[in-house]
Amino acid sequence: MSAETEAAAGTAAGTAAMAFVGVSTGESSIMRIFPEWARLLGLPTARLVGFDLPPDAEPARHRAVAERIRRDPLLLGALITTHKIGVYRAAADLFDELDDFARLCGEVSSVSKRDGRFVGHAKDPLTAGLAIEEFLAPAHFAATGGELLCLGAGGAGTAIAYYLARRPDAPARIVCTDRSADRLAELADVLRRGGADPARLRTVVTDGPADELLAAAPPGTLVVNATGLGKDRPGSPLSPAARHPRGAVVWELNYRGALPFLHAARAQAADRDLEVVDGWRYFIHGWSQVIAEVFGLSLDTATVDRLSAAAEAVR
């Protein structure tokens, strides 16, 4: 049964549901985690249904999914992963309201319905911040002189750069790469409109390994794989020969897939004094914040920790 067919069956049965728009939603751990989370949150009958689109889906398909969520009264909202920018570009006019981050970042990562209004949110800056503050010391950049090297300038990469540019302990330089010059220009515009110092930003168009940029990064640099390589597409933004700067913090946003970027960093961790972080807590924060928005819940730290513990059992 396709994701779209399953969604139709679920809502036809009269069961309130939340949509999940991605590339291969059936492979995501959230499909096994959601029922237990729903029980813990007092939503035992709620369901999660997937809508799968290819990474390069045309605008008409992005718009069709947004229209389906909007018109189905039993779909109470949605989380959108790979297609958050595509949905914004193809369907922004369908929303009665878009939050500040959605308009600023040009993406919709969360959809909810409030008092008959169809509302789009961009949760990535919030969830990126929640995850970052768990592993990065408050004065990390000041203490180490490290920079941000963000490989990938899509929704997640843009949100991470935006959050860190506004952090009290901001990196002295933010280096972002992408295959698309247009996407990098959009990222620079988001940071500029968000009040970041444009002199701190360097954007680099690259369609191959970013080894030279990594070699030029100072000790303590935060290196992020925000490309999707290793999960949605095979490969890594670095070659197998790449060496991380000493004392770097290496963040792989993915938590499933072949993950060659993550495995290579772990192999160097002891020799290079690296802190290596996978995308699990980012995943937890991302999903829990959107579920709270869709179902009108308030989550405290203790609740998020209980959700994380429950998810760990099926990781």
CATH-scheme architecture of the largest domain: 3-Layer(aba) Sandwich
Shape: globular
CATH topology grouping of the largest domain: Rossmann fold
Please write the string of helix (H) and strand (E) elements. Answer: HEHEHEHEHEEHHEHEHEHEEHEHH
* Total helical elements: 13
Biggest β-sheet strands, sense, barrel: 6 strands, mixed
CATH superfamily of the largest domain: NAD(P)-binding Rossmann-like Domain
Task: Specify the helix fraction band.
Answer: 40-55%
Q: Give the overall average pLDDT.
A: 92
| CATH class category of the largest domain | Alpha Beta
Strand content: 15-25%
Supply Rg. 19 Å
Q: What's the end-to-end separation, in Å? A: 24 Å
Number of strands: 12
Helix vs. strand class: alpha/beta
Strand order of the largest sheet: 2-1-3-5-6-4
Number of domains: 2
Could you explain how this protein is built, in words?
The protein is α/β, with parallel strands linked by helices. It has 2 domains: 3-122 and 281-312, Leucine Dehydrogenase, chain A, domain 1 (Rossmann fold, 3-Layer(aba) Sandwich), CATH 3.40.50; 126-278, Rossmann fold (3-Layer(aba) Sandwich). It contains 13 helices and 12 strands. The strands form 2 sheets. Strands 2-1-3-5-6-4 form a 6-stranded mixed β-sheet, sandwiched between helices. The protein has a 6-stranded parallel β-sheet with strand order 9-8-7-10-11-12, with helices on both faces.
Quick summary of this structure?
With 315 residues, the chain is an alpha/beta fold. It folds into two domains: 3-122 and 281-312, Leucine Dehydrogenase, chain A, domain 1 (Rossmann fold, 3-Layer(aba) Sandwich), CATH 3.40.50; 126-278, NAD(P)-binding Rossmann-like Domain (Rossmann fold).
